[in-house]
Amino acid sequence: MYLNENRGNHKYAMTADEPYADGLHERNINKTDVKFFGEGRTDYVLLVPERRGEHLNFAIEEFTGFFRKATGYELSVKTDAEDYGNRYISLYSTREEQKRKMDKRFLSRTNDGYGILTLDSNIFVYASSERGILNGVYDLLGELINLKIFSADCIVYDRKPQKILLPDFAVKEIPDFEYRMANYGIAKESGSKVVARRLRRNLEDETWIPVGSYYHDSFIFLPPEKYYKDHPDWYCFKGKSDESQFSKGGQLCYSNEEMRLELTAQIEKYIERYPDLCNITVTQEDNLDWCDCAKCRASREKYGTDSAVVIKCLNKIRDDIDAWMKEKGLRRRVELVFFAYISTIDAPVYEKNGKYYPIDDDVRLKEGVSVFYAPIEAYYEKDFYDDLNRRFYDNMIKWSAISKGMYLWIYSANFYHYLAPFDTIDSMRGIYSLAKKCGVKYIYDQAQYNNLNGTDFYHLKLYLNSRLQWNVNEDIEKLTDEFFENYFDKAAPVIKKYFYEVKEQMKYIEETYKHFRVYTVMEKPNYYPQQILDKWLDYFKTAEKSVEYLRQVDEERYKVVTDRIILESISARYLKIMIYKKGDFNGDLDKFKEEFKRDVLRLGITRVRESKKFDVEYFIKHWILNTPDEDGNII
Hints:
Layout: E1 2-5, E2 10-13, E3 24-38, E4 45-48, H1 54-71, E5 77-79, E6 88-91, H2 95-99, E7 114-119, E8 122-126, H3 130-145, E9 148-151, E10 154-156, E11 163-174, E12 179-180, H4 185-188, H5 194-198, H6 218-221, H7 224-227, E13 235-236, E14 251-252, H8 257-273, E15 279-281, H9 294-303, H10 307-328, E16 335-340, E17 349-352, E18 355-358, E19 369-373, H11 390-402, E20 406-411, H12 425-437, E21 440-446, H13 458-470, H14 476-488, H15 492-512, H16 530-546, H17 550-553, H18 555-579, H19 589-602, H20 616-624
Parallel strand pairs: 4-5, 4-6, 6-8, 12-21, 15-16, 16-19, 19-20, 20-21
Antiparallel strand pairs: 1-2, 3-11, 7-8, 7-11, 9-10, 13-14, 17-18
């Protein structure tokens, strides 16, 4: 199979292990004999422009805060309108930076990338945006004080260094994906942007024009409650098309020209309302319905997919919006993004001599129209190079042949079973590498996005997502080892043993019984025999004993590390309760359940599955403690 780069001009053979080199990760860093810090002080100041936004102010806080924690020294912050001396770290377009000639051409294609350069014994962190400066600040701190951020509560750095020599920097960084979306609740829905920013992730409210929802928003643009009565032909509903159906499915009819004109008008209102944002989704509803009117049916027959009618609709909207923006004097480009999802998953292409081409020019995506490829039916324990996922591999390549840029939505959770193991770590690099080769610029690896804390190595997966989305060529095994050593302290060996045994057990289940999808039922005795679960629970007892020494050394760290161990034990404890309610609990099932309840609530797990109904308190009350529900039933 071949990748059509440059819109079908040539083909490029791919393998899962092939390094990808198209991001920009030029890193030349050498030590000098110039003292940056010593004897408890430094002559350097942090030099910043007078006019600053939110990200730059946060970058200043992060730099001075971590430097103070590491060295005990409060670094001075000066604006370039003040007397700042001749030793400084320049952040973002200061007057000193503007005096220097440095190669910034690479920054024209990134907002998140940055450069770090040492000139005349001073350090310059430069970028095209404040976001880039913030990303560069974390890199700079990594070199100066060995800052490493593994999770929200696992941040390490050198403590009280005696001397820091000035590094000679010549660094240029562009992430492999420009948009690397926060995908776990602790970084996405915690109410704080700190975790996402420290892991160099993007947030939806800083990326998308908010329509009311960032996805599945077609009925927000054109709510049937408002339009259906006068325009029933704008919609399709299964069964009786009246108001009772509005919450039960349905889609827009994308071949309807009158609907398209009103949809265009609504999109224009949102673009004008949010002048600083440059992406907007125009995406189908989340159901299996699709229009079967004569025009939509004819399009399906001609192109072999329902995506063609959406592409044509969005291409026309693009033309109208471009004309409207020119008339309004609006200079920015706003990307219109539609889903390739369920009914629209397939691209309207044909194959010739190993390459893919649009069936006709009407279904080639225009500049400023992008596909949001969301293959929810894939098997995510495998990457897309695996034969099991051949259809989804082919489809990504097909879409890349008719579009100049792609957005990708993939999946890293079992959405019915948040507390059960679900291993997507081994497939991560392969999927990301293929995505980058296909021109993907935005990646949302949807995980437990609405769960504020989690078991099954929730924090490790978030860390690996973050590192590999910046650079797909990072060494996963090395990153994993470093995470375990810092996160679990002396419990790392036994927790790592558990980690790899869970992975092996999932491979056994997959090979013996079935492959996993994002809604596969996992609580089965043949998947997890009780003796295996009991062995794993013994591992956690051993792990807790191995960090007992911290009680005498650092009581606070002892509590933190012990809680991390208990958090990982939740998965095995959950499986034992759900599968073996009449099994061996040393004669005290009630005590086992009460301890499970206490730890789940105390550690801040908020969801056991995606559904809003199944928050953790509902689950514990009705599933664990068997309290009758509102109808008097035991679940």
